[in-house]
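Appendix B, record 7
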Amino acid sequence: MAQALKEIEKFLKSPPETSRIITIDPASAEVLLEERNQGNRPPKPNKVQQFAADMTTKKWGLTGDTLKFAPDGRLLDGQNRLAACVRANKPFTTHVVFNIDPALFGRMDIGKPRNPADVLHIAGYKYASTLAAAVRWAYLLDTNPYNRETLRPEFVLELVRDKYPDIEPWLKQGRAVNKQYAHPAGQIAALIYKFSKSDAGKANEFVRAWLSGQRNGKYQIIDTMQALLHSQRANNNGRIHELTRAAVIIKAWNLFKNGYKGSLAQLQGAMTKQVEDID
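Structure tokens (predicted):
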């Protein structure tokens, strides 16, 4: 076993209270990536390339940045540096800290672009990008759809765990609508999730008709809805404002749920008003 790996394994078993400076060799880096990097966010190739170039030209130094390990030995931070070490086939010296609480994911590297999807991916959630967007929209629908404030990554993780733990099953429908009609999967998943809270059976029926092309009779409003959204995209260089999309879909749902045939004029009217509450 390489020396760096021996040191890390020793400290994982008996974590020190302060960081340790360790020179990581390429063989140790490769093992750490293979065995201790489960559930981390996707690597960033540009960063790896940049770091590898610095290591190759001996421009890399002891910056104070750390490799971080959880109590169970999982790597929480540092995969790009380890990947660069392997790529450059050069060792690098770094501070290493141990026994970091995984619940602090959202506070790590707060100055770096770790977004809600990164945090959810690290925490082990599937379809993290869709889930992050769905939770954001579910929260906006519950509070204020016009709020443009960015939700902090750790707050999104908290929402998934505590307020919307049952939203995940609806990601599949959101992704299916996205695949067929190119509407944002997260927003659609959140809308369907909220519809299901009102009437789960009709919410499933609404989505089935939307995806299967049922457009006659009581499903005509879904056809009108999709036609209006399509025309909005065509007339706006392929874009639809997210609030416009939400307003049209919610209006169509409210009409469908309450058994009304609805009309194009009603959906167009929804676009010029505040987003309706979901019936």
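Remarks on this record: The mean pLDDT is 91. The CA atoms of residues 244 and 271 lie 6 Å apart.
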